[in-house]
Amino acid sequence: MPRTKKSETPEKKIRKTRAKVKPAPVPDTSKVFNRLAVDGRLRSAPKQSSAFLINVPRGTYIEVVSIVEYKGELWAKTAYAGYNGFIPCRHLTT
Q: Which one of 14, 43, 78, 86 is CB 3.0 to 4.6 Å from 50, fit for a cystine?
């Protein structure tokens, strides 16, 4: 019996690519004060769902005490108008 070729179907080559996401720039904490690039909300903890304390207007200079990371996002621990809280670092500029 002669051999028959099985019908060959070429497999599609699937290219898996990962989206290149640039992380938020880390503010220069060697400078004591950083400027808020947009209106920001001071929050009680470093996450979007935490309690809102006060709105910080755009252009305000705030003192960054430390930088913390929560679920891949950097947050600046700061004080403003008598409130201690956190603002996302993506809202800060030098």
A: 43
- Segment 5-23, tens digit of pLDDT: 555 555 555 555 555 555 5
Between CA 25 and CA 76 the distance in angstroms is 12
pTM score, two decimals?
0.64
> Which residue bears the tokens 């430390």?
66
CA gap 35, 30 in Å, rounded: 14
- Closest-CA residue to 80 (of 41, 47, 45): 41
Model confidence at 92, in pLDDT bands (50, 70, 90)? confident
Say which CATH superfamily domain 33-93 falls into. Answer: SH3 Domains (2.30.30.40)
